[in-house]
Amino acid sequence: MTRASHFSGTQPAPAGGPVASGRRELDLFDVVALAWAERGFIAIVFAVIFTLGVAGAMLTLKTSYTAESRFLVLLNEDPTPAAAGWGDGFMLNQVMQSESELLSSEAVRRIALDSLGAETVLGEAVDGDARGAALKVLRGGFGVSREPNSSALNASFESNDPERAALILNAIVDAYLAYREEVLIETGVTGLGVRRRQADVAVLETRAALDAFLDQHGLSNFDTEQQTSQTLVGNLAERLNGARADRDAAQAGAAALRQRLDQIPGQIELYVENGVSGRLLDLRAERASLLARYQPGAPAVTAVEREIAALEAFVASGAAASEGQRRSGANPVRQELESELARREADARSQAVLASSLETQLRDVRSDVERLRGLETEYTRLAQNVAAAEEAAAAIAALEATAEARRAPAVGAADAVRVIDRASPPLEGASMKKLALVASAVLAMGVALFLGLLRGYWRTYVAAGALRRPRETRRPQDVPEPANDPYGGLPVLARIADRSA
């Protein structure tokens, strides 16, 4: 009972009777009574909600397995450029934060996804491009943590399959180590290696295109054949001019010889044979014989000498020139000229044939030169592509060699992170089913109790008061307080109905 009713003796209305408009406050006993009155309804509601919660927990919540891996970040006292965390300006927390950011970067996840594939990450067959969903799984299941003032990093990955959790975490670790070397080492040897392979492929492709072009047009070496054709054009033109000149000279000589032959007779007298010369020769021989036996003044010698002098005078007078036996024949001069004419005509014909052959060859070579000139633009383009690709490959090879030389002294730079413990399939999993069951029970009890109290209040007070006219009751604040009340002025903490009636 309330403090006012205790001193005034006024009894409040019963709980089951009509309720006045001025008093609608329920005490603890009223609440318990309402709950007890609706215990069946509360039990039904609790059972329904709890059953739904249990079913949802069993169907939706699955056991998760967390694979873990640990790294040790080593700090070197020798500051090496381009190595994260090395140098006087970096503290331990900054180093660990840098490594954590690098390990959790999107690039590392993409590298791991490329090495595993979307189906492995998702654990099921996929249709189309599922990289977005796979990256979301990698992003949501991966975590990095470390203890304060510790140089060890703890990486974890959560999945519903222990084997897949360990596989994905190890792939992320490998991607992190590879990407760390690529990012933190300035030389970029890996990138240069990829670029060099691409450059070599480009060189092979350009050379293949050039070889196909040469094979298509029946060429082996374009520059050599073009130069040879141009040189051959000059040689053939020079030889053609010489052949034409020799032909013209032979024809001119033959024409001159023909004119001379027209003036030279074909037959001539070869000689006139008479006995004067023979007689004179015999007398001279006889004189020589006589001188061998006689003195020069001997009569026999003198007689022979007189005969010799007479014959010589006869010959000198010319009386014996046209006398005697005559002999004629072919003119040797004409024969010689005819032979020379035949030789000149043969030379003219041979030079004409040679000139005709040279003209044909010259036309063919010039057409070949024109064909090569038409192909020169395409060949130049392909050759420039080959030269550019080879130059680029050589430049990248030089850069790679330089990078390797620069990378050699700093081999330990990429070893600043050591893997202490690689991920292995976890033996035990974690499940939220127990917590979900407890939460379902609490929620079901709360909702059932609330609905039961609401239903009991409605049936007991609201619905019953609407059927009966409320009676006039005196409110507790209208009851006069007794004089000299020792509790006057104190606040009312609770009101208890008087159930003694």
Automatic annotation (TrEMBL):
Parts forming coiled coils: 355-392
The keyword Cytoplasm appears for this protein: no
Regions that span the bilayer: 41-61, 435-458
Gene Ontology cellular-component terms listed: plasma membrane
Molecular functions (GO terms): protein tyrosine kinase activity
Keywords of this entry: Coiled coil, Membrane, Transmembrane, Transmembrane helix
Name of protein: Polysaccharide chain length determinant N-terminal domain-containing protein
